[in-house]
Amino acid sequence: MPTTPTTYADLIADVRKSIATVSLEEIKRRLEAKVPMVLVDVREKDETRAGIIPGALSVPRGFLEMQIEQKVTDKSAPVVLYCAGGTRSALAARTLMDLGYTHVESANPGFVRWKDLGFPMEMPPNLTDAQRDRYSRHILLPEVGEAGQSKLLAAKVLLLGAGGLGSPAALYLAAAGVGTLGLVDADVVDASNLQRQILHATSRVGTPKVDSAEIAIRDLNPDVKVVKFQERLMSDNVERIFKGFDVVVDGCDNFPTRYLVNDASVFLNKPVVHGSIFRFEGQVTTFVPGSGGPCYRCLYPEPPPPHLAPSCQEAGVLGILPGIIGVIQATEAIKLVLGKGTSLSGRLLTYDSLRMKFGELKLRRDKRCPVCGDSPTIKEYIDYEGFCNLG
Ligand SMILES: [Zn+2]
Question: What's the pTM?
Answer without folding.
Answer: 0.82
